[in-house]
Design brief:
Helices cover 73% and strands 1% of the residues. It is mostly helical.
């Protein structure tokens, strides 16, 4: 009986001819591994807390105070009336229009890049998009003023050719002009975001649809576009928030003549409009934080849905 018991224990200790460890002798190390794997995120979390969470909390707290430091909601009431409400509407409309244009052009550009078999072209487009996506502010505004401004190079060439765009309703210093200028950094950002999901489309899916008699257009109609729709929507949300929070480019280009939330908040914080309106400016900032948070939650939800087929 003892020998049969030992044989049974020996058989239980072997699975498929390979010795398996005794569960009683194996110590769980999950907690230690998770602690070691998470220690590398501590510097990032500290940086995130100091430069994002703490300032955001400070903005929200100050928005609920008046000049004397007492609690009030009058700042938010004023922030949703008059020119400040108009600034929110203009910012949302501008960000939506700029995001839609950049989404369409960026997706087409990313498709063209992924369809190319030239690695040099892909490397150049990726590196160039990374540079252009982080280019903005005052230098970008001045470059467009020197190019397509009232007396810009291209404007002068068109005027000499008998067509002055400013005589036909176009103005660089308008919402339309800002929409065009924003494409300089939004389209490259869209290309960077969309290249990975487009490359994740497996060639086997194209071959399978072709073997079943589907055309290339039918593949994109029933397979490609439905699979890319969640990443495209998530990328659009990123572009929307990027355009919504842009400040330096719009300020340098329009000199504050267009009512946009970042410009209005900057003017109130610096005291260029009315002294002692810092709390109102913080209320505008809190409104921007709320809109960005909503967009962030939507992005996280869509991205989670999109990541299922990328695994």
């Amino acid at each position: 009986m003892a020998s049969s018991t030992n044989v049974g224990e020996s058989a239980q200790g072997r699975i498929g001819g390979v010795d398996s460890p005794n569960p009683a002798l194996v110590r769980p190390r999950r907690g230690r591994r998770s602690w070691h794997s998470g220690i590398g995120t501590i510097p990032f979390l500290v940086y995130l807390g100091l430069f994002l969470v703490v300032p955001a909390i400070s903005v929200v707290v100050t928005a609920f105070q008046n000049g004397a430091g007492t609690f009030t909601v009058s700042n938010f009431i004023e922030a949703v009336h008059g020119v400040y409400l108009k600034s929110f509407i203009n910012s949302i409309q501008l960000s939506f229009a700029a995001g839609v244009v950049a989404t369409v052009v960026g997706v087409l550009a990313a498709l063209a890049v992924c369809a190319s078999s030239n690695r040099i072209v892909k490397a150049l487009v990726s590196s160039g998009s990374a540079v252009f996506a982080n280019t903005g502010g005052v230098p970008l505004a001045f470059s467009f003023i020197a190019t397509v401004g009232n007396f810009g190079v291209i404007t002068k060439l068109l005027t000499d050719a008998g067509f002055n765009p400013y005589d036909h309703g176009f103005s660089l210093y308008s919402v339309l002009g800002l929409t065009i200028v924003y494409q300089y950094f939004l389209i490259p950002l869209m290309v960077l975001i969309m290249i990975p999901p487009i490359e994740a489309l497996r060639k086997e899916w194209v071959d399978a649809s072709s073997s079943l008699g589907a055309t290339r257009a039918q593949f994109w109609r029933w397979v490609g576009i439905p699979l890319l729709a969640p990443p495209i929507l998530a990328a659009f949300i990123v572009l929307f928030t990027d355009a919504f929070a842009a400040y330096a480019t719009a300020e340098a280009l329009t000199s504050g003549t267009i009512a946009l939330v970042p410009i209005q908040r900057g003017a109130l914080i610096s005291g260029n409009v009315l002294a002692g309106q810092t709390n109102l400016g913080e209320a505008l900032g809190a409104g921007m934080i709320a809109i960005v948070l909503v967009a962030g939650f939507l992005y996280a939800y869509v991205q989670r849905k999109a990541s299922k087929w990328l695994r």
